[in-house]
User: Which sequence fits this backbone?
DNA sequence: CGATTACGGAACGTATAGTATCGTAATTCC
DNA sequence: GGAATTACGATACTATACGTTCCGTAATCG
């Protein structure tokens, strides 16, 4: 089952240029027409590439989209000295880039698809974990500083902060504006009371 | 743009039986094969109905799925006397039914699709609002009891509670177990601190 | 009983995923 | 430098599924 590339030594090497052109075309088309209207022929056309060149690299459309998605920026770590400052800086930076990238459309589509496609789910998992990592780091720093209790569930804490953003992204058609970050972080830290 | 059914007085009336059979078949197939593998021909076959009978009622597959989805149970209001009790009872009840229904697969798929399909988004919006309503009611009662401050943003408060569940549903392949509810509600009420 | 509308079934047109094949271009080995 | 090998863009092809259209039949109204 291990289909290693075998890295052949002879023959024409695969064009790294074409590889990147395909990923770029995928991202720009994703942004323009969205996931469900994305066609492999469209990607090939925009990338100036034959369909076979795409299928030689990715077994199907889904892994291609996942890899293109993986190139998009995730959370960037900030160390401001306080948990509230870290969270606000990170999330604000993320949301600033969010609406101008294919993220807002691709993320829900892929999230929806993975429930039916275990293969996609496996590809998707590490990508998502990597995107969440800076959030975990900030929370861990807060625990070390004594800002958070030692026994706190870091995973749940992260989900509490990101949750309201996810809800707005998935359950409403609303845009995600960076200004929504501060009230969210404040409420998550204080609690509903 | 208002395409009213015009409710014709003559001719054979549309079979309400077929209508329900189509919705039932849609739900059961949704559960079995998931959204992306759902075909209209499959629905017609299982419902014992011609494809034309489906397209006479719904203009495309998406509105059909939305209407079928609308038949699934949402949050059910509980009035236990305390906010924590209300939230835990509601969410636990919901999650109990969640994994055995097509909800876990259909919800993310539809949520992903709506970003590119304004028509779907319009159909989807009121359905989602109705599902959230009991949560808003419980929070409103808590404000009236003085359990929550008057100036709290009810929408944000609701998102804070539901958020961690949404994150797990969309960003991970994890099952949603009712036992996860209590820690979530407790943390949302107390805050990270 | 005649007009009208819906029924299940089947054929059809179109679009797209994914495969296969073409002649050509790039690279390695001898 | 030439043969072998692999990738290239292009195109044709197969299979699937949406959505439309037609068929003969069934149900309802006037």
Assistant:
């Amino acid at each position: 089952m291990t289909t290693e590339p075998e890295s052949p030594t002879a023959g024409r090497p695969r064009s790294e240029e074409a590889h990147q052109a395909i990923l770029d075309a995928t991202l720009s088309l994703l942004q323009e027409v969205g996931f469900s209207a994305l066609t492999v022929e469209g990607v090939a056309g925009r990338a100036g590439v034959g369909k076979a060149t795409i299928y030689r690299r990715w077994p199907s459309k889904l892994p291609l989209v996942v890899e293109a998605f993986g190139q998009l920026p995730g959370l960037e770590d900030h160390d401001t000295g306080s948990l509230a400052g870290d969270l606000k800086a990170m999330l604000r930076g993320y949301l600033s880039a969010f609406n101008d990238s294919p993220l807002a459309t691709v993320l829900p589509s892929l999230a929806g698809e993975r429930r039916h496609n275990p293969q996609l789910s496996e590809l998707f998992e590490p990508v998502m974990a990597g995107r969440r990592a800076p959030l975990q780091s900030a929370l861990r720093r807060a625990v070390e500083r004594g800002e958070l209790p030692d026994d706190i569930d870091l995973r749940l804490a992260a989900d509490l902060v990101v949750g309201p953003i996810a809800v707005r992204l998935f359950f409403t058609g609303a845009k995600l504006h960076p200004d929504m970050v501060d009230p969210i972080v404040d409420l998550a830290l204080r609690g509903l009371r």
About this structure: Residues 9-13, 15, 39-41, 51-52, 55, 59-61 of chain B lie near DNA strand D (CB under 10 Å from a C1'). Chain B touches chain A through 51 residues (CB under 8 Å). The mean pLDDT of chain B is 90. Chain B has two domains: 16-60, 72-190.
